[in-house]
Design a protein that fits this description.
Elements: H1 2-24, H2 31-51, H3 61-84, H4 101-128, H5 132-135, H6 148-153, H7 156-169, H8 174-194, H9 198-216, H10 222-241, H11 259-263, H12 270-284, H13 291-299, H14 310-314, H15 329-333, H16 345-353, H17 357-377, H18 381-391, H19 393-398, H20 402-428, H21 437-450
Keywords: Membrane, Transmembrane, Transmembrane helix
Protein name: Oligosaccharide repeat unit polymerase
Transmembrane segments: 30-50, 70-87, 107-129, 149-169, 175-194, 221-240, 353-373, 379-398
Length: 451
């Protein structure tokens, strides 16, 4: 039965991608971001663990059937939600898609301002630990600051890159565009690579790719997209596998064998840990009922220096250990989850709302589909919104909602404000704000007429 559930999970994911492409002809549709990662986590990984006998030490067959049934239902819900949001939207005509010249300048200015703030925050964290060499002379180290706003402020580097790439994709001057892209991408890339961090590496690659293609209305060829995706996936696994060997001055041998990440039966494996979290919560009848997620929105922004015991006072002290996902393993299962582990999105939703995790994941899929649809049909700020969601998709699927909620706010709000400011120039001249493709096309037509 468990093997049948694994096969069904893989089949519905493939069907989801096929339906998405049949309707949209868009290789950047969210199904092509979410489905492959869900396939790895909920089909390929447990299949390899089952083949090697690695699951037997952690679960019996009834337990595996139970958790895989949850994963299958959650996967189906996400696919249905994503597809129901709309697939009948095709990329814009490349002749009319680029951002109008009037907005390009302001987007570059916004890129410079937001990226500089992000770069300043990044530099402060590096200076605090004694400079670049000290920051990256040990495995998985990096910079630091006691202020969470300074640490998280480096996320603005990604906004700077995204806005500059979108402006350049629409015809903005090469030199300022490339200077902004390089100036903001290189610090982020250095930190991502030298710390062996899969999320930031994946995020930068996706932001660069989508920021280039969305404004232009073009798409990379399918075979090229598959090659890029495969290369990126392997590289991300390579970073995680060699995380302890990557730092300045390291003389440790790197390995290209990434199979342990997917196949090694250990308590930190995402499938094993996530399944354990599901079973532990069920046996203890302990669910958070949205308290962890609300804490990310309303409690996390308050500095710890002002509210030292904020999570405990809010009723979720568990957030300080594995984002609240690692409680009760020993008592319920007889083994403990590894520190720093993540359960994957469906298990994380289960911890929060029990079986309501299934429709909630469907709602998340619908949100991805709806934002993609808006980015195609209306463009404008929605392109920045979808780019941010796409960049965070690896955190969503492979980790927890806690890894996504605050980062989404950090990326979306500044990007949205930058786009609205860029559009204000046209409103001040008595013209409609460019929020839809037709309005953007009208502005470009007027530019041609004046030329």
């Amino acid at each position: 039965m468990f093997e049948l559930l694994l096969c069904c999970t893989a089949v519905v994911l493939v069907l989801g991608m096929a339906v998405a492409y049949d309707g949209s002809r868009d290789i950047l549709h969210p199904m092509f971001l979410l489905a492959p990662m869900m396939g790895v986590l909920y089909a390929w990984m447990p299949f390899k663990l089952l083949s090697s006998g690695g699951l037997d030490a952690f679960f019996d067959r009834d337990q595996l059937v139970h958790v895989q049934t949850l994963y299958l239902l959650g996967t189906v819900a996400c696919i249905c939600g994503c597809l129901l949001a709309g697939t009948r939207a095709r990329p814009a005509d490349p002749a009319s898609a680029p951002i109008p010249t009037r907005m390009q300048k302001r987007l570059l200015i916004s890129s410079g301002v937001l990226g500089t703030v992000g770069l300043s925050c990044w530099m402060v964290t590096i200076i605090n630990v004694g400079g670049f060499r000290n920051a990256f002379s040990a495995a998985y180290s990096g910079g630091w600051d006691d202020n969470g706003y300074v640490r998280d402020g480096a996320m603005l580097l990604l906004i700077g890159v995204s806005l500059a790439v979108m402006a350049r994709a629409s015809g903005a001057p090469r030199l300022p565009s490339f200077l902004l892209i390089a100036g903001f991408a290189l610090p982020w890339l250095a930190s991502a690579l030298l710390m062996g961090r899969r999320g930031p590496t994946f995020g930068l690659a996706v932001i660069a790719l989508l920021s280039w293609y969305l404004p232009r209305g073009t798409r990379p060829p399918i075979l090229a997209s598959a090659a890029i995706a495969g290369t990126l996936a392997f590289f991300v696994l390579l970073l995680v596998t060699n995380r302890q060997n990557i730092y300045l001055g390291s003389d440790r041998e790197m390995t290209s064998d990434v199979s342990d990440i997917l196949e090694k039966p250990q308590s930190g494996n995402e499938y094993i840990y996530g399944s354990g979290a599901v079973l532990s919560a069920e046996q203890r009848d302990h669910y958070f009922w949205m308290r962890r997620y609300l804490a990310q929105i309303f409690v996390r922004p308050v500095p710890t220096s002002i509210w030292p015991n904020k999570y405990a006072d809010f009723g979720v002290p568990e957030l300080l250990y594995n984002a609240g996902t690692g409680e009760g393993f020993g008592d319920a299962l007889g083994w403990n989850g590894a520190p720093g582990s993540a359960p994957g999105i469906i298990a994380d939703l289960w911890l929060e709302v029990w079986w309501l995790a299934v429709p909630l994941f469907g709602l998340i899929g619908w949100c991805y589909g709806a934002v993609w649809h808006k980015s195609i049909t209306e463009q404008g700020p929605w392109m920045g919104f979808y780019t941010a969601l796409a960049a965070l998709s690896i955190y969503l699927v492979m980790q927890t909602m806690e890894a996504v909620i605050f980062r989404t706010l950090e990326l979306v709000i500044p990007s949205w404000l930058a786009w609205r400011w860029a559009a204000r120039e046209d409103r001040s001249a008595g013209e409609p704000a460019p929020g839809t493709r037709s309005r953007l096309a009208a502005i470009r037509h007027e530019e041609v007429q004046h030329a």
